[in-house]
Amino acid sequence: MESRCIVQKPISWFPGHMAKARRLLQDQLQRIDAVIELCDARLPLSSRNPDLDPLIKNKPRILLLNKSDLANPVETKKWLTYFENQGLDCMAIEMGRRKQNILNAIIRMTEDRLEKSLKKGIHRAARAMVLGVPNVGKSTLINYLAGRSAFKVQDRPGVTRAPQWITASPKLELLDTPGLLWPKLDDPVAARRLAFIAAVRDEVLDVYHLSLALIDELMVIAPSGIMNRYKITDDSLRGQALLEAICKNRGFLIKGGEVDLERGAACVLDEFRDGRLGRITLELAEDIS
Questions:
Q1: Which of 45, 95, 231, 255 gets the highest tally of CB atoms within 10 A of its CB?
Q2: Within this chain, do residues 100 and 211 fall inside the same structural domain, yes or no?
Q3: Number of domains in the chain
């Protein structure tokens, strides 16, 4: 069976709250000193919104490759080199580590602007906006830097619906923003991979075919993760046959002994997203022309 990912309701790629959020971001840009852009370390290029560049081109920016503990560390280093060669200040991060390093990097970006304010007799904290696609970890990062649960966080996109300010330290205020996708995704591979990492709500996707596409791709780039986790012995299995084998080995059965493909599909997606299939990077820096 052909593996494919169908977005059943195309409008959900760019729902109304995203269009409104984009307008609000443009208004807030006048009030900030710097931009903190988050991408997913498993998908460093495709999880960056290309529409942000013209909006924030005149602001100091740092790119944080979040969830680096879920990505292949060798590939993450290559991506950092790639972005540095593009002239971007960047850092790989995971929640619970290097908090002060992250804060220091953000504050360094804003020193010039704060010095100008100080010369005018204005003492204030730096203001930075946190941007990224849905479910990339923006609110989680702010809560971590602030040392408290300032914002609601869930492992699904679309939780933050409006910009929100929080004081992270006496020297820094952070603006949390809704996750922004772009109106049209021309690259079906990038669209599918964004769905793999839950940047798009599962409710608007064909989860069954999405899971088939994921396991087929993983059998090419990281087969040991699938085979070890689900005790697969035949490395030629693909598509529904592979998902059926996963279901049988996990005991996902329904009445009559038939495999529960829906449960198996949800399990594969959840376990990939949680890192239980290993540290996997979906796109490689050397493949970028």
A1: 45
A2: no
A3: 2
Average pLDDT, the chain: 86
CATH code for position 244: 1.10.1580.10
pLDDT in tens, 76-135: 999 999 999 999 999 999 988 889 999 999 999 999 888 998 899 999 989 999 998 889
End-to-end CA distance of the chain: 32
Q: Where are the alpha helices (DSSP H) in 92-173?
A: 99-119, 138-146
Residue 164, SS3 per DSSP: strand
Q: List the one residue out of 191, 214, 216 whose CA is nearest residue 204.
A: 191
pLDDT digits (tens, 9 = 90+) for 7-33: 333 434 555 555 666 777 777 888 889
Between helices 223-230 and 207-221, what is the axis angle to 10°?
A: 110
- Which residue shows structure tokens 């990097």? 105
Kindly compute the dihedral angle of the four CA atoms of residues 200, 181, 185, 223, in this order, to the nearest 10 degrees.
-40
Report pTM. Answer: 0.86
Same domain, 130 and 252: no
Q: Domain range for residue 61?
A: 13-176
pLDDT tops 50 at residue 72: yes
Task: Evaluate whether residue 191 is within a structural domain.
Answer: no
Does one domain contain both 55 and 17?
yes
